Amino acid sequence: MREDFYAEYFRIEDRHWWFVGRRQIILAVLGAHLTPPPNGHTARILDLGCGTGTMLSYLRRFGEVEGVDADEQAVRYCQARGHARVRLLESEALPYPDDSFDLLTALDVLEHIEDDGRALEEVARVLRPGGAFLATVPAYPWMWGAQDEISHHFRRYKLRQLEQRILAAGLELERLTHFNTILFAPIAAVRLARRLTPPKGEPRSDFQLTREGAANRVLAGVFSAERRWLRTRDLPFGISLLALASAPAR
Q1: How would residue 104 be classed by pLDDT, with cut points 50, 70 and 90?
Q2: Are 25 and 224 in contact (CB under 8 A)?
Q3: Which of 23, 86, 229, 239 suits a disulfide with 180, CB 3.0-4.6 Å?
Q4: Dihedral (C-alpha) 167, 32, 103, 51: value to the nearest 10 degrees?
């Protein structure tokens, strides 16, 4: 991702409607799926590609949280938020032994990794048997646009493509659903319009299209409303995909 975007994300991630809505959906899905750990055991959690670290604070409700990211600047932003247990990823291999974690999240991360199959194999390796994996990714290759370019994405996913990648890594797929469905039409329209009439000058992040205020609050409320449905049911289309998988018994 472009380095200047980390500063933008650090500034807006707590309040921007897209981050707020996605966060509430993820927490609702995890809350409905995760079972309490055995007595005396605190769940160990890893956020892969933790970015500037906002999600680390929210994942603490489920256990002991660590983060890892391939960008030094992202790690520094996490530390600025007070997250000490964040490591720099310096190779394809995750810097953890086998069977280390009860939960691993990769939230809009896989699309940034050229060899996503190898990354998923690492996820399977470091998860304990029965451990959970939750990933979100952007959907529909036909929706590719400037935001994907400036975010340094390698792909947007088809549903079956993501399914095949997860199964090939040896994980057991439990749920695979679209989300960001209610706002699908206006977001798709904006993306297609920007493709037909590219803005002049330096490409701008989609996150700059809305500012703090009433519109941001309304969009956050609309997006996050999907969490009530997604706790137990899947959605047939949407801007993004959410996958929930588990590591099999060894």
Answers
A1: very high
A2: yes
A3: 239
A4: 100
Look at the block and give the residue holding tokens 């995909």.
241
Q: Exposure pattern of 199-224 as b/e (b: 16+ CB <10 Å)?
A: eeeeeebbbeebeeeeebeebbeebb
Q: Kindly list the distances between the CA atom of residue 57 and the CA atoms of 7, 9, 60, 207, in Å, as whole numbers in the listed order.
A: 18, 15, 6, 22
3-state secondary structure of 135: strand
Say what the pLDDT of residue 133 is. Answer: 98
Contacts within 8 Å (CB) and 24+ apart, 10-18: 10/52, 10/77, 10/80, 12/207, 13/51, 13/52, 13/54, 14/54, 15/212, 15/216, 16/207, 16/210, 16/216, 16/220, 17/210, 17/216, 17/217, 17/218, 17/219, 17/220, 17/223, 18/207, 18/219, 18/223
Q: What pLDDT band is residue 146 in, cutting at 50, 70 and 90?
A: confident
